[in-house]
């Protein structure tokens, strides 16, 4: 969903729900990577593809989609209304589509933009929204206040996210190198611009009182500034498949919901190691052993669990931690402690610690 991650936001975007909701990624059911939005609880969220399709999970309501519409450009974001009773989809051209209790307040669909739109954010009462473009241009509709933009500045990296202050009288813009720009009553508390994360920055999230914010990078790691402490609230991130690991994750997302089949190599169904192998073969023509314990032993160099990135393989074993032959399960890491795995009845999105950490092997593997 949840959760998705860009180098930067391009026409191919994927969702990522950090922490509890998981995901960097989402459903790539129509050949397009999705965007995601939280639906108030970690188990409830929407995933939206760049072709306009929307999938709802948990208690998130089904309010419609643009999947059957003839779109001018790809969808680049989905934003829920404050009460989760609806959502907006926004396209790269700034076209806005409203569903459920989301009001339509205008768009840039008919305008000629200098740079494509990369996302949107709702005002606190849901009676307006902002659109933000790759060059930092900001467009305000409804009761959204225009407080300034970086559209006329020379930026070292493209803008990827906008976060309003709690009172809606200002907002922060975030660039993919972690740079932060404050407008209106949005106070600058620091940035990653001088010391960027290895992964591109994806999302900026305000604290409840607006006296700080988190910057969240592509793999779901968050960095607090001002009074931002602890993990950021569950957020949807978007990413493009820029690395082999990203592309492996996107393939795995496209298999979500397919049946678990012992010995399955796809496309009808998979077992755990079959999904891991198929994801890498289809994404980047990378092949390795078929069985989980052999994958742990030979599929690539060991990666500390604290250094995992999208596409790395993680494993579970029932013997001595260092004994590769004890491995009985494999999954694909997607960031934010999220994994895609073939287990139970279907291919599904879960968390690395879903069974506790007792059987998690001490390192992952990067093919």
Describe this structure in words.
The protein is mainly β. The protein has two domains: 226 residues, YVTN repeat-like/Quinoprotein amine dehydrogenase (Methylamine Dehydrogenase, Chain H), CATH 2.130.10.10; 122 residues, Alpha-Beta Complex (endopeptidase fold (from Nostoc punctiforme)). It has three helices and 23 strands. The strands form eight sheets. Strands 19-20-21-22 form a four-stranded antiparallel sheet, covered by helices on one side. Strands 2-3-4 form a three-stranded antiparallel sheet, with no helix packed on it. The chain is globular, with a radius of gyration of 20 Å.
Secondary structure: number of strands: 23
Kindly name the structural category: mainly beta
Round the mean pLDDT to the nearest integer and report it: 81
> Taking Cα atoms only, what radius of gyration do you get, to the nearest Å?
20 Å
Q: Return the CATH architecture of the largest domain.
A: 7 Propeller
Q: Name the helicity range.
A: under 10%
Oligomer: single chain
Shape: globular
Question: Runs with pLDDT <50, length 5+?
Answer: 1-43
CATH superfamily of the largest domain: YVTN repeat-like/Quinoprotein amine dehydrogenase
